[in-house]
């Protein structure tokens, strides 16, 4: 409505309105959960009023009222209070309902002076909150190209409390899957100012009362122009359509320049979609295997479980799935990941500067996040391969508010065992499965909850008389709350369990069932405080309860002669307080500084053995046992952990970073093998075993070339460690009540340099990584039985100086591409026999110093050809074929070297996991 027309209308109707306001009748009304329009019909039936409105304004609105002799205008105020509908009474015959705006019967005294000074409310920029206001008259505003756009009216105008500004807020989601969209820009065209959406797709912006043109745009989405008429505070939720523009290649730019700009060192972010073309073993899309191609992350060999990050042991990595710990994230002897690739959204790996909110491990954090369920429509993704089949389904529970994701994976792996170059494995059986479910619910714009449940199980039989099984179980609950624009918080509850059991049913009367259980529960409260553009704080607290059953053996069957064994349970409480500050010192210098104070208390009920201080820990130096009551503190450890990292811009696309971390680890793996074993047990620090400690220094330079087309980084590190757990020769670690007498604790050191060159754009993309790394341990003591290699530093089992990976993908067209991986690694250390001797008519073999030799070097080439489905818009599912050959060269890479005696001679033999090329074809489809 133009200003002149509005004034004329008000002058014509004001006399009749003023003369009739004192004659409003009363009515009595009772309605129970009926449509709101029933109120209007009751008014019309009991009075002479005729109401004018549009039915669709009230679709789905119900109400319950019970009033006696209430004025009609008071009734309307009550029933319309929670809507954006106003009303206007004219004479005693007409009531006009209006959406958003108010119909005025008088004008403010200074109305004409206000509009003479300012043509429109949109031009006001300074004293918006203090000047007297006037009725809102909207103005036509065209887009830059004059195109027709949709108009949205926001809020409910209030004639008695007019404001100059109002707050527009809301959430933007993807129309195809209901997932929130981050980093979208929302620009006010006439003001050239705006905001952007956060990680959860939410936004908030303060606008002058009146009409505005908003442009919403972002990479990969169609640009939208909106006309927004602001009457008062209100919400506008939008659903964005993927861009239909054809691209030559998929370019990941959501974290553009992140590698140069972030203050944290040694951070890696992996998106599952980025690795779908990689030729991994047996066609499995595996985010953890992809991590092994990046610098600083390695393992002991092909098919090995666990990770060695920057010279650390496999038990020094914290693997989190939606905040819950996963102790053994592998299937099938380490060949497959135990994480469903279609339910996993992303992985952030901290191998340098670990943020203060994480603790309990020395080397790294693998922070894995499950995808947010689709809240708009049913969708899914599945894959059929030669060994496994995988499926993930997503469905809305309450449309655009809550959704459920359910995924599962199972194997039909018998044939792969028969093809392995190992007689024992060829005659064995194995199976595994994993399931995951995630529920997400948006309560309102300030609160949402997420719950995740996960379970995996492996069972196999290598010999005909035993069955081995292990499982992971995890549950997590997360409540996110937004206090205001500057303060956000999260409450997290998790529970994790790892267990294994061995069932032996042989020909003798020694049948048994062995079981081990490791359980932990954690409460965590985290808070973010956006103090200013200069300071961003994160702080909180956590408490974790460990409960470990080190092992129990029960006789299997009534005829078994096996004695029952039960090792006492271990319990401990680990608590921590932490705070960190992301501090922008200047445009060039940014610091990420934090401190975490952790406190560990070993708890009773339990027994601790006391040994002499001036002797080796063995039966001869044992003094006594000391008993502790339930929840009595056995021993306390703790201290501050400093996390400091900084970035300095040498130019806009070149930065240098440095960091220092010190960390504590209170839980240890008992393992006499080179790699992670499914019979690994965990030991908590106590009177005899001290916590592990580490200091890590790192320095790196980071460069972007041609925008973000190429990324180059060069990083070096030096790590010192204390109280590393190792074992004595011939140690018995499982089911040993005096395990502290079988282990040693020593010092470690590691250093290395890491190079990464990544090409993000073009037909040819991928990365090249090279790591030179050394890792050493020293087990020194004044007592010979606790001294290894004369007390000198010697290479760890996982010390592999050279590690080179090349990952490439070439796109012939939008549908066809080829990929290749090449990996080279130095052979890991090993202990070899040097000769034999005869003593008391018996032959003996004497060995070299521990880890003084190496097995042959490892290298492997993998190739794949990838076929995307057609890009038709209307079809049931989008398909993707992956045809790959793992170990194209048929390289017989040794996994381990062992020795046997034949005809009085010692012979060296090697075992391999994949000694021949392994072809695979996998079909993936997404709907």
Automatic annotation (TrEMBL):
Keywords: Cell outer membrane, Membrane, Receptor, Signal, Transmembrane, Transmembrane beta strand, Transport. It is a multi-pass membrane protein. The keyword Membrane applies. Residues 1-20 form the signal peptide. InterPro entries: Beta-barrel_TonB_sf, CarboxyPept-like_regulatory, Plug_dom, Plug_dom_sf, TonB-dep_rcpt-like. Residues 283-361 form the TonB-dependent receptor plug domain. Coiled coil: none annotated. Pfam families: CarbopepD_reg_2 (PF13715), Plug (PF07715). PROSITE patterns: TONB_DEPENDENT_REC_3. One of its GO terms (cellular component) is cell outer membrane. The keyword Phosphoprotein does not apply. Its main location: membrane. It is found in: Cell outer membrane. Belongs to the TonB-dependent receptor family. This is TonB-dependent receptor. It comes from Winogradskyella flava. The lineage of its organism: Bacteria, Pseudomonadati, Bacteroidota, Flavobacteriia, Flavobacteriales.
């Amino acid at each position: 409505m133009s200003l002149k027309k509005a004034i004329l209308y008000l002058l014509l109707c004001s006399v009749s309105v003023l003369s009739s306001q004192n004659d409003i009748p009363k009515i009595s009304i009772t309605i129970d959960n009926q449509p709101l329009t029933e109120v209007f019909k009751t008014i019309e039936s009991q009075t002479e009023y005729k109401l004018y409105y549009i039915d669709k304004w009230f679709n789905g609105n119900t109400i319950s009222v019970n009033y006696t002799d209430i004025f009609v205008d008071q009734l309307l105020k009550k029933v319309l209070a929670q809507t954006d509908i106003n009303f206007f009474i004219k004479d005693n015959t007409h009531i006009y309902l209006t959406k958003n705006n108010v119909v005025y019967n008088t004008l403010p005294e200074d109305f004409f002076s206000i509009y003479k000074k300012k043509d429109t409310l949109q031009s006001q920029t300074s004293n918006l909150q203090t000047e007297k206001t006037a009725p809102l008259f909207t103005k036509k505003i065209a887009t830059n190209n004059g195109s027709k756009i949709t108009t949205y009216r926001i809020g409910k105008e209030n004639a008695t409390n007019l404001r100059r500004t109002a707050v527009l807020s809301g959430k933007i989601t993807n129309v195809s899957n209901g997932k929130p969209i981050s980093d979208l820009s929302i620009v006010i065209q006439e003001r050239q100012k705006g905001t952007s959406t956060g990680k959860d797709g939410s936004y908030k912006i303060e606008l002058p009362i009146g009409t505005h043109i908003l442009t919403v745009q972002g990479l990969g989405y169609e640009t939208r122009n909106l006309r927004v008429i602001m009457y008062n505070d209100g919400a506008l939720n939008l659903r964005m359509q993927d861009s239909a523009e054809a691209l030559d290649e998929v370019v990941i730019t959501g974290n553009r320049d992140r590698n140069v700009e972030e203050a944290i060192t040694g951070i890696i972010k992996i998106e599952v979609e980025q690795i779908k073309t990689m030729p991994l073993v047996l066609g499995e899309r595996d985010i953890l295997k992809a991590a092994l191609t990046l610098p600083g992350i390695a393992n002991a060999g092909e098919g090995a479980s666990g990770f060695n990050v920057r010279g650390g042991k496999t038990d020094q990595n914290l693997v989190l799935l939606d905040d819950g710990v996963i102790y053994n994230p592998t299937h099938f002897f380490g060949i497959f990941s135990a994480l469903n690739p279609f339910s996993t959204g992303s992985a952030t790996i901290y191998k340098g500067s670990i943020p203060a909110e994480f603790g309990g491990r020395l080397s790294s954090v693998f922070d894995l996040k499950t995808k947010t369920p689709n809240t708009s429509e049913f969708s899914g993704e599945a894959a059929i391969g030669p060994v496994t089949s995988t499926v993930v389904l997503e469905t809305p529970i309450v449309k655009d508010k809550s959704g459920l994701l359910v995924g599962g994976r199972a194997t039909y792996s018998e044939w792969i065992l028969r093809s392995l170059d190992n007689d024992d494995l060829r005659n064995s059986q194995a199976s595994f499965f994993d399931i995951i479910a995630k529920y997400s619910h948006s309560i309102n714009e300030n609160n949402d909850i997420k719950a995740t449940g996960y379970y995996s199980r492996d069972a196999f039989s290598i010999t005909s008389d035993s069955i081995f099984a292990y499982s992971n179980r995890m549950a997590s609950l997360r409540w996110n709350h937004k206090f205001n624009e500057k303060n956000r918080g999260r409450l997290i509850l998790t529970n994790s369990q790892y267990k294994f059991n061995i069932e032996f049913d042989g020909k003798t009367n020694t049948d048994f069932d062995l079981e081990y259980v490791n359980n932990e529960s954690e409460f965590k409260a985290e808070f973010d405080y956006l103090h200013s553009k200069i300071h961003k704080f994160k702080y909180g607290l956590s408490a974790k309860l460990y409960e470990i059953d080190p092992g129990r053996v029960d006789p299997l069957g009534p005829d078994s002669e096996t004695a029952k064994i039960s090792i006492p349970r271990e319990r401990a409480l680990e608590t921590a307080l932490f705070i960190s500050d992301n501090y922008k010192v200047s445009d060039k210098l940014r610091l990420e500084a934090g401190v975490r104070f952790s406190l560990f208390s070993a708890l009773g009920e339990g027994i601790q053995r006391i040994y002499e201080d001036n002797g080796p820990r063995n039966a001869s130096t044992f003094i006594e046992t000391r008993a502790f009551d339930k929840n009595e503190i056995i021993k306390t450890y703790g201290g501050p952990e400093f996390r400091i990292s900084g970035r300095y811009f040498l130019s806009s696309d070149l930065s240098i970073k440095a960091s220092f971390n010190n960390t504590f680890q209170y839980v240890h793996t008992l393992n006499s093998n080179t790699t992670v074993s499914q019979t690994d047990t965990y030991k908590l620090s106590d009177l005899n075993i001290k916590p592990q400690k580490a200091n890590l220094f790192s320095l790196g330079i980071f460069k972007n070339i041609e925008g973000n087309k190429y990324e180059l980084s060069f990083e070096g590190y030096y790590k010192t460690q204390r109280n590393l757990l190792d074992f004595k020769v011939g140690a018995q670690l499982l089911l040993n009540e005096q395990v502290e007498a079988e282990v040693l604790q020593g010092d470690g050191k590691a250093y290395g340099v890491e190079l990464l060159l990544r090409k993000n754009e073009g037909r040819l993309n991928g990365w090249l990584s090279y790591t030179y790394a050394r890792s050493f341990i020293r087990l020194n003591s004044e007592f010979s039985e606790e001294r290894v290699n004369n007390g000198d530093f010697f290479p760890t089992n996982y010390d592999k100086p050279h590690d080179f990976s090349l990952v490439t993908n070439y796109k012939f067209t939008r549908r066809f591409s080829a990929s290749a991986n090449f990996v080279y690694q130095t052979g890991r250390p090993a202990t070899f026999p040097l000769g034999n001797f005869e003593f008391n008519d018996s032959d003996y073999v004497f060995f070299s110093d521990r880890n003084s030799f190496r097995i042959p070097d490892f290298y492997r080439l993998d190739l794949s050809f990838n076929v995307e489905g057609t890009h038709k818009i209307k079809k049931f599912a989008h398909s993707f074929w992956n045809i790959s050959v793992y170990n194209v060269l048929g390289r017989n890479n040794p996994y381990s070297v062992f020795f046997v005696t034949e005809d009085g001679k010692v012979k060296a033999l090697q075992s391999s996991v994949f000694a021949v090329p392994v072809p695979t074809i996998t079909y993936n489809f997404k709907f």
